[in-house]
C-alpha cells in the first residue's frame, strides 16, 4: 500500500487536492511541534480527504494533537516511542476513539524497545530517515528492522502492519519488500507528472 506524504506541499492546497485524487491508500500527515523535532507543521490544509488519513505525530504533547486532528477520523494514529513513557495508555486512547494505534521508532531506536507493546499495536512505523524534515536519503539499516518486525509478526502471530517512512522511492522500495505500507513524499510530490511517479510505486 502507498501513503503519500504531503509534507513538502502542505502550503499548496491545489497540489494537495491533486495528490489526494491520485487514489493513494492513505494521505500521510506529518505533524511536528517544534519541540520533539525542530520543525513545526500544521497539516490541517483541507476540510477532509478522499483518501484515508494516516496521522504521524512527531510531538511531545500527544494528547493535544490527538484531539486537534480528531475530526479527520484518522485510520491510523502513530506516536513516537521516544516521546512518552506511557505507551499503553495512548494505545488504549487511540483505540477508544475508533482509530488504529501505531508506534513510530527513530533510526537509532532498536526494535526490541517495542516488544512489550507489539501485541496491542495495529502499526509499527519504521523511520528510515531522521525525523523532522523531508527529502532525506533512505538509511540502509532500516531494511534489517523491517525484516526483524516481519519475523516477529510471523513467529508470534501479531497483527500489526509495517510502515516505512523516509527516502522511499522507486529504487529504495526494493529494501522494503516485507513492509505493508510505504510512505512516499518528495519522490511523487516534487514532480510535475505526479501520477506517473505514483503508479511507478504501485
Task: Please tell me about this protein's structure.
This protein is globular. With 202 residues, the chain is of the alpha/beta class. α2 (62-68) links the parallel β3 and β4 (76-80). It has helices at residues 13-20, 62-68, 87-96, 142-156, 186-189, 194-201; strands at residues 2-5, 26-32, 52-58, 76-80, 100-105, 123-127, 161-165, 181-184. Helices cover 26% and strands 21% of the residues. It has a single domain (2-201), classed as Alpha-Beta Barrel (TIM Barrel).
Topology:
Layout: E1 2-5, H1 13-20, E2 26-32, E3 52-58, H2 62-68, E4 76-80, H3 87-96, E5 100-105, E6 123-127, H4 142-156, E7 161-165, E8 181-184, H5 186-189, H6 194-201
Parallel strand pairs: 1-2, 1-8, 2-3, 3-4, 4-5, 5-6, 6-7, 7-8
| SSE order, one letter for each helix or strand | EHEEHEHEEHEEHH
CATH superfamily: Aldolase class I
The strand line-up of the biggest sheet is 1-2-3-4-5-6-7-8
Q: The biggest beta sheet, please?
A: 8 strands, parallel, barrel
Mean pLDDT: 94
Instruction: Name the CATH architecture.
Output: Alpha-Beta Barrel
Rg, please? 16 Å
How widely separated are the two ends? 7 Å
Low-confidence blocks of residues: none
Number of DSSP strand runs: 8
Name the CATH class: Alpha Beta
- So how many helices? 6
Give the percentage of residues in beta strands.
15-25%
Structural class: alpha/beta
Domain unit count: 1
Shape: globular
**CATH level 3 topology:** TIM Barrel
Share of helical residues: 25-40%
Amino acid at each position: 500500500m502507498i501513503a503519500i506524504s504531503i509534507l513538502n506541499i502542505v502550503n499548496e492546497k491545489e497540489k494537495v487536492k491533486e495528490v489526494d485524487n491520485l487514489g493513494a491508500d492513505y494521505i500521510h500527515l506529518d505533524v511536528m511541534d517544534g519541540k520533539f523535532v525542530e520543525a513545526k507543521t500544521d497539516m490541517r490544509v483541507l476540510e477532509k480527504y478522499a483518501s484515508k488519513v494516516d496521522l504521524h505525530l512527531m510531538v511531545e504533547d500527544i494528547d493535544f494533537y490527538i484531539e486537534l486532528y480528531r475530526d479527520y477520523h484518522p485510520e491510523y494514529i502513530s506516536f513516537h516511542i521516544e516521546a512518552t513513557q506511557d505507551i499503553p495508555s495512548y494505545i488504549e486512547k487511540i483505540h477508544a476513539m475508533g482509530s488504529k494505534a501505531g508506534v513510530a521508532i527513530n533510526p537509532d531506536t532498536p526494535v526490541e524497545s517495542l516488544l512489550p507493546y507489539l501485541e496491542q499495536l495495529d502499526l509499527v512505523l519504521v523511520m528510515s530517515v531522521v525525523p523532522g524534515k523531508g527529502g532525506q536519503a533512505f538509511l540502509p539499516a532500516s531494511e534489517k528492522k523491517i525484516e526483524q518486525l516481519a519475523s516477529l509478526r510471523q513467529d508470534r502471530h501479531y497483527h500489526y502492519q509495517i510502515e516505512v517512512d523516509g527516502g522511499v522511492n522507486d529504487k529504495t522500495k526494493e529494501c522494503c519488500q516485507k513492509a505493508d505500507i510505504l510512505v512516499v513524499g518528495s519522490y511523487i510530490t516534487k514532480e510535475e507528472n505526479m501520477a506517473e511517479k505514483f503508479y511507478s510505486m504501485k
